[in-house]
Design brief:
heterodimer; A: about 425 residues; alpha+beta; Heat Shock Protein 90; 3 domains; five-stranded mixed β-sheet; four-stranded antiparallel β-sheet; about 55% helix; about 20% strand; B: about 220 residues; alpha/beta; Arc Repressor Mutant, subunit A; five-stranded parallel β-sheet; 12 strands
């Protein structure tokens, strides 16, 4: 949930509570004032009524039923005067409405009368309406203004934040860039940007160092390996060596060779990951690369009695030609290596996709795991276990999609772009 | 034949020198670019082997200068860098070949011989070994004047064997020579055996003696004895 929405939630809940409490308080206080006003008026009326009752010679009959506002009832004894509230039917409007009544006793013409002055409390109803309306209006206004404020805030105040976020999203460590920002008015965002700048510059330096170390280490390993191999080769020429010594030397030589190949493959992988092979702008035609590679691998294909079918259109992705060659090479050698005797290979090259299908043994592992480095189906093979990892890395660097499907005996590797 | 080796790693230089001395090549060694230029100015070399990662500067510059001053000398770059750009740049500068460390001495030997043969425009480019005569430009192989049809791999194998005659060749070095980076595709080296067997049969069918000796556990040796 967006921070602004969360803030808005709290703001809304708080303002609702405050508004309703305020509305209640407002209602109570205004009602108190209205009541006090009504009482005052009642007492004024009482004074007038008393005066009139004292100065009248005869009590007019009609005054007894003065209507809702004044009632005179003869009583035997006087009582205490009091104020009460009651509901009465208002004939004019034909509905029950609240009234405030002042009841007192007065002696007129030798008799006690109970005098009831009623006052309709219409104001109070109006007050209720007014309060509800006001509160509703304020709530609506507040809601609208808060929403508007938030959208404006997110556009204006939060803009630098979203900008930073966008830059971080697009950040690619391989491009060795340090993120830099313009100074911001908002202190927090400025601090955030500074932290991001520091962080990316540290990360870039660390990455650069690591990369250089890996490359240098690999290079430095090549020379001692060359020394080892050359010494072994010199030793092989020594006629005085016994057979068992030669065999031991031969295993040393095999291991050193393997180490050399491994080192080169890892170096290549590092270079591809470091994006040292930038794609050109034109798509390259994969057909000559595939045909050339098939020719190179001809004797391997013949030896295993594999049949190869090709269905190719002259298309290909945009990528560095050297990477295209490695890609094709590794896919084809993979299809040959993991094939069965007298198996088949089907190569399909279409607009936006290359698919290489080969017959093979069922897999024990999850096919996606075969893209991991040093993952091998069998421990027997002399394979380095880096072939498909290289393919995967090349595809990632070039934004291509690599998929491994198994369809009965068929293993299908598809590169799409 | 005179070779100049420019290489800062002494142990490797000694091995290379020893190897070529057995081949009856004169192989001189310069540890850095300065002394290399000194030597080149005095003697004429058939081929110069340059490690382009010299301590005293960029080896590619050395190649550039060598090419300018001594255009007729063959140049083979030896580098720990496998970077394609370096390779292409090196070849563009006029080096004849590019070899990545670590390499087999037999491979280096074969490359040196190929470079010298190619550079030797006027001379006889024919390769002769016992009864075998090869015309490298036409890929023509004959024994006692009878043509032998070889596959591409068999031809490469024969050239490689002759270049490294009288030496023990390991199966790995043969595999790497024939298949390059695909050599690790061979789960066992039976595969080389198939090619060796076919080549030997084709040669012997035309009356060629069996020059090829298998060294148990190691590889093969091609020699007249």
């Amino acid at each position: 949930m967006k921070l602004l929405v969360q803030i808005l939630r709290y703001q809304l809940v708080t303002s609702m509570v405050v508004l309703f409490l305020g509305a209640g308080l407002f209602y109570v206080s205004v009602r108190y004032l209205v009541d006090r006003e009504a009482n005052k008026e009642l007492f004024q009326s009482q004074v007038k009524v008393r005066w009139q009752l004292k100065h009248l010679e005869t009590l007019p009959v009609y005054i007894l039923q003065l209507g809702d506002s004044l009632q005179l009832e003869p009583v035997r004894y006087p009582g205490r005067s009091f104020i009460r509230e009651t509901s009465m039917l208002n004939l004019a409007e034909n509905e029950v409405q609240p009234y405030r009544q002042l009841v007192f006793y007065e002696r007129a013409l030798g008799r006690w009368y109970r005098v009831t002055i009623s006052k309709m409390l219409l104001q109070r109803q109006h007050l209720m309406e007014a309060v509800v309306m006001t509160v509703t209006f304020i709530v609506t206004l507040m809601l609208v203004s808060l929403l508007l404020l938030n959208s404006w805030l997110s556009k204006r105040l939060w803009k630098p934040f979203y900008k930073t976020l966008g830059k971080l999203d697009d950040y690619q460590i391989q491009q060795h860039e340090t993120l830099r920002f313009e100074p911001q008015e908002t202190l927090e965002f400025d601090q955030l940007n500074q932290s991001v700048t520091h962080l990316t510059s540290r990360v870039t330096t660390a990455y650069q160092n690591l990369k250089e170390f890996t490359e240098n280490a690999s290079h430095e390993i090549q020379t001692p390996l060359a020394v080892i191999l050359s010494k072994i080769e010199g030793l092989f020429q020594d006629e005085t060596l016994t057979e068992s010594q030669l065999i031991a030397l031969s295993s040393v030589s095999e291991a050193a060779n393997r180490l050399g190949r491994l080192n080169q493959a890892l170096l290549l992988l590092t270079k591809i990951e470091n994006r040292q092979f930038l794609a050109g702008s034109d798509p390259i035609n994969l057909v000559p690369i595939i045909s050339g590679k098939l020719r190179d691998l001809e004797d391997l294909i013949e030896q295993r009695e594999l049949s190869v079918q090709t269905d190719m259109h002259a298309v290909g992705p945009v990528m560095h030609p050297a990477l295209a060659e490695i890609l094709v090479n590794n896919l084809l050698t993979n299809a040959i290596r993991h094939n069965v005797e007298k198996g088949k290979i089907i190569i399909i090259l279409r607009e936006r996709m290359l698919s290489i299908r080969n017959t093979g043994k069922p897999l024990n592992a999850n096919p996606e795991q075969l893209f991991e480095r040093f993952r091998k189906e069998s421990t027997l093979s002399s394979s380095l276990g880096l072939g498909l990892a290289l393919v995967k890395t090349i595809c990632e660097v070039n934004g291509q999609n690599l998929k491994y499907d198994i369809d009965n005996e068929w293993h299908v590797l598809t590169v799409s772009w | 034949m005179k070779l100049l080796l420019i290489e800062d790693e002494k142990a490797l230089a000694t091995s290379i020198q020893n190897y070529f001395q057995r081949e009856n090549f004169i192989c001189e060694w310069a540890q850095d670019y300065e002394s290399a230029i000194g030597k080149i100015n005095i003697y004429k070399y058939d081929c110069v082997l340059v490690d382009i990662m010299l301590p005293d500067g960029d080896g590619l510059n050395a190649v550039r200068e060598l090419k300018k001053k001594f255009p007729e000398t063959g140049i083979i770059i030896i580098s720990a860098k496998n970077s394609l750009d370096d390779r292409i740049e090196g070849l563009n500068l006029g080096s004849d070949d590019y070899l990545t460390k670590p390499f087999h001495l037999s491979e280096l030997n074969a490359r040196v011989q190929a470079v010298i043969r190619r550079r030797n425009f006027q001379g006889n480019q024919q390769i002769r070994f016992g009864k075998i005569v090869i015309e490298p430009q036409e890929h023509f192989v004959s024994v006692d004047a009878q043509e032998i049809i070889l596959t591409r791999k068999e031809y490469d194998l024969l050239i490689y064997l002759i270049a490294n005659k009288n030496r023990v060749l390991t199966k790995e070095s043969i595999a790497e020579h024939l298949w390059g980076d695909d050599a690790d595709l061979m789960d066992n080296f039976d595969f080389i055996y198939t090619h060796i067997k076919n080549l030997r049969k084709k040669l012997m069918d035309k009356g060629c003696p069996d020059y090829l000796r298998s060294i148990y556990g190691v590889g093969y040796k091609f020699s007249e004895q």
